[in-house]
Write a structure and sequence with these properties.
3 domains, mainly alpha, Arc Repressor Mutant, subunit A, 3-stranded mixed beta sheet, about 525 residues, 3-stranded antiparallel beta sheet
């Protein structure tokens, strides 16, 4: 440990209390402690090598106090004293300047606590080595004004000295991380997103992740006044985004590093490509043996988009229900952060559902896979109204529901969406209907056995991926959080293999075909 480190770790607090003893004022004690610390660090940086370090520190402290104070509590630093503190340009060789580098960085970190006009003068004088007279000339300020502002700004140096304590580095910057959430209920005030979208809160989360910090440390590192920072930390703790253990604050959710994600992405590609091969073979078997899978209004290549996604969803490994922690204001949700990587997320496959529950028929449900590929997702609505679902059901199954709806309006909408078409004097549905009983009855024994075997392999591959991802993400947690059940639970909820992991290979290999005139009803099924 160097002498400067020794001073910062062993003497800063003692010097402050020494100053408080003489000044009887927290503000003036901070100023005096800063003066003493400045003299100690400047002397050590310029090569001072005291034999008795402890005695030397207190000798410096006593000299600074006597020079600065005529009596207890009376500040007597003359304005022209700063002229004698100007850096001597030729007094430091290269090695000594390297020693000073860390201290200059400390001074830079404390500048966020100082008003802009004061900060500019402080930077010019202490960091850019400009004399008071030169600052006066360049800023067009009177010499006395520059000296006064320089004197006033020196009280912020105590914050800078405190920052010489060993802080961890922030793992991520706000622009490098994004969040996702899963929930059963949002908070009454939009939690968690109303908080996650707050820039200060996001900075706090990133500052303390993998680097638990005190309120004081956060105040200094983020440049926020301590009373305000303490208030914000109390709020975030009450909202369960962070927790306080002793004097330090921790995040209550994981932030997954880019490195961990890349390992998991490699595994995703490995298993996704094999699953895609299984899906393609299963589609081939089903189309060859079950003509009911294809209506007359979708081609086999169009219907395959839906069937491939359905098969993937069928390959579900055993899982436990998601557990959401109870949150304030009636919420039940979890969040997880991810460091931004170069992974291509342009392709994804969602599943939207619409029903007739509002019309008293919750059993009538239509679903649609929405493919974020080319312009497919943009061509169709996110959801259908209950009336539209009811009329689509009637047209698809040639049935008349005993409910009162505006059929003409619903038909007009469905025609515009491309979910039905008019043929002569009748309407035809473009929806695929899956009847598992009919499909099973149509299968030969050999096809049924092969399908079961392929589905089992796909399910096992999805389980293999999930276990790999869980292990990789849990290992990525901060060491003190790796056994935290809540953190591990959040990770388990976010390790599923998604549809795009397999379907992207089917698209790549031409097994899922796209054309500009492909049906708008792609992925739509009862």
């Amino acid at each position: 440990m160097g002498r400067i480190d020794e001073y910062c770790s062993d003497y800063l607090d003692k010097v402050y209390y020494y100053s408080l003893r003489y000044t009887k004022s927290e503000l003036k004690a901070s100023e005096l402690a800063s003066d003493i610390s400045y003299e100690v660090i400047r002397s050590l940086s310029r090569g001072a090598e005291p034999e008795n370090f402890r005695a030397w520190v207190w000798k410096v402290a006593d000299n600074v106090r006597r020079r600065s104070y005529r009596s207890v509590g009376e500040l007597l630093i003359p304005l022209d004293a700063y002229e004698s503190w100007e850096p001597e340009d030729d007094s430091l060789d290269v090695a000594e300047k390297v020693v000073l580098a860390d201290e200059l960085m400390t001074m830079r970190r404390c500048l966020c606590h100082i008003r802009r006009d004061y900060r500019e003068i402080l930077v010019a004088h202490y960091i850019n080595n400009m004399s008071v007279s030169e600052i006066s000339r360049r800023s067009s300020l009177p010499l006395g004004t520059v000296k006064t502002k320089l004197q006033s700004s020196r009280k912020a140096l105590k914050a800078g000295m405190e920052m010489t304590r060993e802080y961890g580095k922030r793992s991520y910057s706000p622009d490098d991380v994004y969040f996702t959430n899963s929930c059963s209920t949002f908070g009454a005030y939009g939690q968690p997103w109303t908080i996650l979208n707050h820039l200060l809160y996001k900075n706090i989360f990133l500052e303390i992740y993998d680097n638990p910090s005190t309120a004081e440390e956060l105040s200094m590192s983020l440049g926020i006044a301590l009373p305000y920072m303490e208030s914000e930390l109390d709020y975030l703790a009450a909202q369960t985004f962070i927790e306080k253990v002793g004097k330090r604050y921790y995040t209550t959710f994981p932030i997954i590093s880019a490195e961990a994600q890349r390992r998991v992405d490699d595994k995703e590609c490995e298993v996704g490509e094999v699953i895609a091969e299984h899906i393609d073979r299963m589609c081939e078997l089903l189309f060859s043996e079950c003509s009911e899978l294809v209506s007359g209004n979708q081609t086999p290549s169009e219907a395959k988009w839906t069937l491939a996604a359905r098969i993937f969803d069928y390959m579900i490994p055993d899982s436990v229900p998601n557990k959401y922690r109870a949150r304030p204001d009636g919420g039940a949700w979890e969040i997880i952060g991810y460091q931004v990587t170069d992974k291509d997320y342009s392709f994804s496959v969602g599943l939207h559902s619409s029903d007739c529950e509002m019309l008293g028929r919750p059993d009538i449900l239509v679903r649609q896979y929405r493919y974020n590929y080319k312009n497919l997702a943009a061509r169709t609505p996110h959801f259908l109204t209950a009336t539209q679902v009811a009329r689509l059901y009637e047209i698809t199954f040639q049935a008349r529901l005993d409910i009162g709806i505006d059929r003409d309006k619903a038909e007009s909408d469905l025609l515009e969406y491309g979910y039905i078409k008019r043929k002569a004097d009748r309407l035809e549905s473009l929806v695929i209907v899956y009847d598992r009983k009919k499909i099973s009855a149509a299968l030969s024994d050999s096809a049924r056995c092969e399908l079961a075997e392929l589905a089992a392999r796909g399910t096992e591959l999805r389980r293999e991926y999930k276990e790999f991802a869980e292990a990789a993400y849990c290992d990525d947690l901060p060491s003190e959080q790796r056994q935290n059940e809540d953190m591990r639970n959040v990770i388990k909820m976010n390790c599923a293999l998604y549809r795009d992991s397999a379907l992207k290979f089917l698209i790549r290999d031409g097994k899922l075909e796209y054309s500009d005139n492909i049906t708008k009803a792609l992925g739509l099924f009862f």
